[in-house]
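[retry 2/3] Membrane protein: previous attempt timed out, resubmitting with same input.
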Amino acid sequence: MATFLYRIGRFSYRRRWIVLGLWVLLLALAGAGAATMSGKMSNDFSIPGTEAQRAIDQLTERFPEAHAGGAGARVVFVAPEGKTVADPAVQAGIGRVVGALKGAPQVARVVDPYTAKSISQDGRYAFAQVTYGVQGMELTDADRDALQDAAALGRDAGLTVEIGGDALRANPKTGVVEVIGIAVAALVLIITLGSLVSAGLPLLTAVVGIGIGLAGVAIAARFADINSNSLILALMLGLAVGIDYALFIVSRFRHELLVRKDGAEAAGRAVGTAGSAVVFAGLTVIIALAALAIVGVPLLAGLGLSAAATVAVAVLVAITLLPALLGFTGERLVKGRLFGHATPDPESDSGPVPMGERWARFVVRFRWPVLIVAVAALGVLAIPAADLRLGLPDDGMQATDTTQRKAYDIVSTGFGPGLNGPLVVVAELPAGADPQAAVGQLVTRLSGMDNVLYAAPNEMSGDGRTALLAVIPKTGPNDVATADLVHTIREQKAAITAGTGATIAVTGVTALAIDVSTRLDEALLPYLAVVVGLAFLLLLLVFRSVLVPLKATLGFLLSLAATFGAVVAVFQWGWLGDVFGVHETGPIMSMLPVLLIGILFGLAMDYQVFLVTRMREDFVHGAAARDAVVTGFRHGARVVTAAAIIMISVFGGFVFSGETLIQSIGFALAFGVLVDAFVVRMTIVPALMSLLGRAAWWLPGWLSRILPNVDVEGEKLHRAEEPVREPVAVGV
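[retry 2/3] Membrane protein: success.
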C-alpha cells in the first residue's frame, strides 16, 4: 500500500498540470451536471414494513384527495376576550383568512373550522387545516409568505392567529455560524502549519472535494429519493475530513521536504505514509456510513450513502490533487514565517520538547492513575444516557416566540394536548358490511379506552370499504401515556374490531416514532456487527495486532456512552440549553443514536489510525514499544490536536442550525470528537499502550502468515528507497 501510494504521490507531483487539469475538468462536469440534471430533494419520511407506514400507504391510495404526503399547516384562531368564533365579526375575519388560504399557491385543500366543527367547547378557539399538494421541500419562500399573509388578514380583524405544521419549515441552509467554524479551522491551520500557503491547501482541496461530492448528491436525487438533510450532512463531514486528511499529508510533506530537499520524493513519502493512514481512516468512515443502508430506514440510507460518497471523494482528492498542488508550492511551505518566526515543523525530532511529548511522558509515567481518572470521567458523563428517550420532533420543541410553538400551545389550551398529535386509525371494512354501523362500533370502543379524550370518524372512501378515524389522546404526542395508548390499541385489535369484520392499523406522529424506534432497535446489533466487524478487520490489517483494534473499539464505546450522556443532558434535560441554542427540551430524535454510531465510529477510528500508525512506524523502525508511544506522540500529537479542533469547529457550527436533526448531530459529533480525540485517543490509548508494551503489537504466527502486509507505516520505503530517476528542483 505504502509503495503504491508513494508512486501516486510522486506521479501527481511531477505531472501536476495533468492531475490538476483532470480535477478541474471533473469539477466543471460535476457543476454542469448539478445545474442541468439535479433532482428535487425530499423531506419524505418512511419506514417500509411497519404498521404506521402501511396505514399511510393506505391513506395515499384510498384518499388521494387528502394528499397524505404533502406539507400541512394548521391555522389556529382565538377570538378576542368576551367573544366567540360564532360572533359575526369574528366569523367574517376567519372567512377572509380561509378564503385567502384557498387561493394561496400550492394549496390543495382547506378545511375551515365551521365545516369541520373544529371549534373548542367554550367557543373561543378554532382551527383550519391546510393541505398542500407538494412536500415541504418544494414550497418556496413565496408560498410560505402567502401563508403568513393570509394569517395577517385575521390579525387585522382583531383575532389571534398562529400557524403550526411542517409547511413553515424552511429548507436547511448554511449560515454565519458554519462560516465561523470554517474561519476557526483556517486559524488553526495557520497556527499549526505556520504559513498562509500551507493553511490554504487543505481548505482549497476540501472545497474541491465537497463541491464534487455535493454535486454528485444533487444529481443522484434525480434518480433516487434523497432527503434534504443529506446535503448538510455531506457538507459537514466532507468539509471536516477533507481538511483533516489534507492537514496530515501537508504536515508530513513539509517534514519530508526539510529532511530530503526533494519535492517529488517528499510528496511520494508523504502520500505513502500519511496518505496510507488517510486511505484506511477514510475506509472506516465510508464503511460506517454506507452500512447505514442495512438499517432499513430510507432516510438513514440516503444520509449515509451521500456522506460516504463525499468522504470517498475527499480521500481521492487528498492523495492525488493535493500532491499536485504541492508541486506548485514547493519549498514555500517551509520558508514561510509566522509572526516573524520561522515556520515550525510539527513532526520534527529536533528543537524544544513539544507539549505532545511532555503529555505522553506524563501519561506513560502515571499510566494507572491517568487511566482510572479518564475512564471514571467518561463514566460520569455517560450517566444521563440511562434516561435516553427517543421520539420525533414536533412544534412543541420550537422556540416559545415562534408562531409554530404559539399555535401548539393554543391548541393544547383550547382542545387539549392530544390534538397536537392525533392518532389516525385506518379501518378496512369487509365487503357487504354496513359502513356506518361498523364505524360506529369502532368509534365507541376506541372512545372507551383509557387516555382517549374522544374518537370520531373522519372520512370514508368512495367504495365504503375504508374508513379514516381520528383518536385524540388526553396527552401530548411525545408523552409516555400516548405511546402506551398506541401499544394498547395494537394489542387489543381483536376486541376493538370484534363483530365488525374490520382490520385496523394505527399511524400518526407517536405511532411513527414507536415504529422507528422498534426498527432501529432490531437493526442495531446487525449494524454494529457489520460496522465493528469490518472495521476490526481493517484495523487488523493496518496495525497487524489483535489488541490494538480491540482497544480501539472499546475506547469508541466509552466515547459513545459519554456522548449520549451529553446529548441527553443538553437536548432532553436542558442543561446549558441557552448556550447551545436549544429552545425547548424533548425526546431525542429517533434516528440520532444509529446515525451517531455510524459517523462517530468512523471519525474515532480516524484518530486511532493517524496517532497509532506513527507509534507503529517508530516501533517497526526499531524503537522500543514504550519509547514508540512517546516518539509517536511527538510526531503526531500536534497535528492530531489541530485536526480534532478543526473537526470540532466545523461540527460545532451546525449546533446553531434551525433544523433539529442537524443541530443535534452537530452537537453530538463535536462533543464526540472532543471526548474521543482528547480523552480516549490521546490519554487512554497511550496509557494502555505503555501498559501493554510489546504485547500491544502481538499477532499470532498463523494469522500473520494469512494477513497481507499492507505496510501502512512505510517500512518498505524505509528499507529501500525507490531511486529518483529525474532530479526535480524543489518548487519547480
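[retry 2/3] Membrane protein: The radius of gyration is 30 Å.
[retry 2/3] clearing retry counter.
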